[in-house]
Amino acid sequence: MADTLILHEDPRSGNCFKIRLTAALLGLPLAVRGYDIMKGETRTPEFLAQVNANGRIPVLQIGEGPAARFLPESNAACWYLAHGSALIPQERFAQADMLRWMFFEQYNHEPNVATLRFWLRFVGEGNLSAEQRAQIMAKRMAGCAALELMDKHLAQHAFFCGAAPTLADIALFAYTHVAEEGGFGLGDYKAVQAWIARVETLPGFVPMD
Fold it and tell me: Rounded to whole angstroms, how far apart are CA atoms 142 and 111?
């Protein structure tokens, strides 16, 4: 991959970590440009005009100068990096199965597990709006349901799509391994804990900042 790769990120974000972990496991050099989302640094006119009009990170920048391309959305960026590698299965059903776990992560897992982590660790419960506080119980229940489903699956599989890691594992690892920061007890999910340990021993693994 000849193009310069630059990750626009906040290192506290699990979505940003997915991309860094993918690059590390593949041995791809990845430069980073940091932003503090708590200070609104992704909402400046410059960021909106030059990096992502949606005002969000992560964004994977491919190339530099006038020819640079910008790819928002963490799972799309991971797919770009992993194209042609063993992190994306070649068999048709296995590839679709990987995608369904990545969709599960974005629709069932991240909105609950990651949101509570952000609210409780970085915003602080006392600073939440009344509407946010009213959502805590529902998000905790939905997050626990997602972790339970993962635990049942991982009790029968080493990784989400079989015996080898794929992008599905990277996508789900990012916020699962720090779920306790959102008040989720990982001790209740033994298969998930064992899977976390397996991911952490993969060659090239890097920890979240």
Answer: 9
Contacts 24+ apart (CB under 8 A), 42-47: 42/10
203: left (phi over 0), alpha (psi -120 to 50) or beta: beta
Is residue 205 in a domain?
Answer: no
Tell me which of 32, 51, 82 is where a domain ends. Answer: 82
pLDDT at 172: 98
Please tell me the predicted confidence (pLDDT) of residue 1: 62
Q: Please give the C-alpha separations between residue 55 and each of 25, 46, 47, 207, in angstroms, as whole numbers.
A: 28, 10, 7, 26
* Model-wide pTM > 0.85: yes
Domain termination site, one of 61, 82, 103: 82
- The answer to whether residue 208 sits within a structural domain is no
